[in-house]
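Task 17 of the worksheet. Students: predict the tertiary structure of the chain below and write it out as structure tokens. Keep your answer in the requested format; marks are given for formatting as well as content.
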Amino acid sequence: MIAIKDCIYTRCYCEENVYKFIESYPGNRSEIYAVFISNPQKKCAIWCQKASEEPKEIPVIWDYHVIAVEKRATSCLVYDLDSTLPFPTSFESYTHNAFRPTLSRYNLDLVLQRFGQQFRPVKGQDYLEKFSSDRSHMLVDGEWMAEPPVYPPIFKDSYGHNLNQFIDCNDDQLPGAWMNFNQLIDYFMI
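Model answer:
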């Protein structure tokens, strides 16, 4: 198990944080996945996020988010460096608290109707081979929206900047198929 203190982390660069996590993953890479979370509107609600003033009550509306999921024969764990939940946390606990909270003061059905999540699990090895970003999505008028990681961009000439394809719910060219919440549960439940 990897401790959070041993992870490379840069705020607002979840796709690169997960890439670095998978890159350093000590187990069998067939057990680890990068999971993209988004929707066609690029506005999805996720609870228990450090960016929220009240993580259990108020969701963060992300354009997209990326987490790592480890699926072993007897357990399934989620590694989310932006979560207030334990690191790692069980898949069941994470999905219950981050995507379907019972403590929210908001009408959950209404929130999920507007800000529901879709998921794209990508096998870890595929993610390491295919993901490529020049970080241009974080530049506005030549200024960084959030300071970039100190290491060079994870950019591969053969793929160009393909983050937008990874978060496009209509893309079927890159690895991983988009699915709804129930399909995600079926995909990862032991």
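Marker's comment: The first strand starts at residue 32 and ends at 38. The first helix runs from residue 14 to 24.
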